[in-house]
Amino acid sequence: MKKMNAAVLTEYRKVEWKSVDIPSVSGNEVLIRIGYACICGSDQHVFLGEFHPRTTLPLIQGHEFAGTIVETGPEVKRYKRGDRVAVDPIIWCGHCPACKRHHYPACTTLKLVGIDLDGGFSEYMKVPETMLYRVTDNIPDEHAAMVEVLSIGFHACKRAGVKSGDSVVIWGAGKVGQSILQALKTKTQNTVIMVDILDERLAIAKKTYPDVNIINAASTNAVDNIKELTSGEGVDIAFEAVGHATDLPGVLNPVRGCIQAIRGGGTVCVLGLSSEPSPVVMKELIWKEGMIMTSRVSHGEFAETIENLNRGTLKPDALVTDILHPSKTQQAFEMLEEEPRKHLKILLKFKE
Hints:
globular; 18 strands; 7-stranded mixed beta sheet; Rossmann fold; 2 domains; 6-stranded parallel beta sheet; alpha/beta; 26% helix; 27% strand; Quinone Oxidoreductase, Chain A, domain 1
């Protein structure tokens, strides 16, 4: 067997850069030479062991990646060697109640490459051609690797029903919050507000889109500020993208803050994957006859994301704070854990 290098999670909190077999392709599978891969918040949870026993070791992580096809199986019809592609990492069962309704992100046994099976933190990766989206020539390799996370933003906008002219607040200026912001700016020119407790992350949003209003919830009353910015009405839509919230005296839990921030009949869309209960006063939502919903992964928005990247309407570089060689994957996880204020999106550069 031919060999390749991969960042292998051999123990929780321990990644080794080691030689492994290059996967062999058959049927409708293609072999991709990875260009860039990205470290996601879910990857951090897997690294720390928080997805156990869902994850089994050893594991090659990585579900945000893109590259170039170097080999195709005999049944591949739509792609050829040399095609540049982004990979949708979602694997659904196709026969559960959600899948029968074509609501694939709600699949009861949903799996992702890089979590439930080996992923893209490797020099080569094989996937079925059904998971591929062709990337246009004028999209740089590093941007192609970010299609997955940006698609989460577009999916959230679709779930929440964002329309032109909607006012919006995003609670949480991390990777997902910034991705929602990028998608939003292609859809509405009305008031957009970003809330967080880290000035460094708020500064990224403000630098990327100077017209975005930023609020540090640790130093001011976020809901009062949101009401002031919307003439006392509240926003049409509030996204919660914090997840594991930091408890601070006098600071609202993000989900409750979103509920208080919407107008009458407004919408709250929750994406943060927190394991802790969120203290919510339901009458605050009921009095407004507001709607609360959730959003998970993506559902075909890769095409929309690639189209916007091709048009230059997104700013993916704004999310990237570091680019490292994949042999430094262990260091990358430690950087994200130890200095969250400094690091946002770390890319692993496989391309020589």
